[in-house]
Amino acid sequence: MANNLSSEKKTQIVALLCEGNSLRATARLADCSFNTVLKFVPLLGKVCMKFHNENVVNVKSKRIQCDEIWSFVYS
After folding, report:
1. pLDDT digits over 9-50, tens only?
2. Closest Cα to residue 2, out of 19, 14, 18?
3. What is the pTM of this model?
4. How far apart are CA 18 and CA 29, in angstroms?
5. Burial track 14-38 (b if 16+ CB lie within 10 A, e otherwise)
6. Which residue from 5, 13, 20, 32 has the least number of CB within 10 angstroms?
7. Closest Cα to residue 2, out of 41, 30, 29?
8. Which ranges of 19-75 does DSSP label H, i.e. alpha helix?
9. pLDDT (tens digit, 9 = 90+) per residue, 53-68?
10. d(CA 16, CA 5)
């Protein structure tokens, strides 16, 4: 389970995912089970959302580029 992982293992999993590795490749390279990585991802998402909401404030933008938005709306 993700709660039983050491800080070093969690850091390794985050680094592997950020490099673009798949969930299965991350599990193989980090020497843990696929289900462990799969259960860790939502926890990581919550931490990232909390960090973003606390640190990204008062950002003013003049232009937003949305060239890959089609993948999110299945166009």
Report:
1. 999 999 999 999 999 999 999 999 999 999 999 999 999 999
2. 14
3. 0.71
4. 13
5. bebbeeebebeebbeebebeeebbe
6. 20
7. 41
8. 23-30, 34-55, 70-73
9. 999 999 898 988 777 6
10. 15
